[in-house]
Amino acid sequence: MKYKIIILCMCLFSCGPTYDCDASAEDLKRDECLLIVHKIPSNTDSRFNYKGIHPITKNECNCNSSRSDRWWVKYKEYIEIGDTIIKRKGELIFSIHKKDSILNFNFDCNGKIYK
């Protein structure tokens, strides 16, 4: 009886919903983040909530997106005050412009690189 329950549970979990990378990529294209970083969230904050100045309008802004948080937060360790973050609408490249270099990160889902 115990084995039947285990096998049933394994079947249920293996038949779960699959992640649709193409749909997710299309959804992520809608976000934009253009920001010169002035404030970095704490290390304990799991959200991507950077604040600063928009490089074109010079207005205060933030890069806080419930849609792209999980993707952008992967790169927190590379971002410092003074860096410029660029993620344009319609693209799947997240860039961090530093004083001496540019770091570009393409959206990656299940091993497939999106551009």
UniProtKB/TrEMBL annotation:
Keyword terms: Signal
Q: Which residues form the signal peptide?
A: 1-20
Domain of life assignment? Bacteria
Designated name of the protein = Lipoprotein
- Tell me what organism the protein belongs to: Flavobacterium cupriresistens
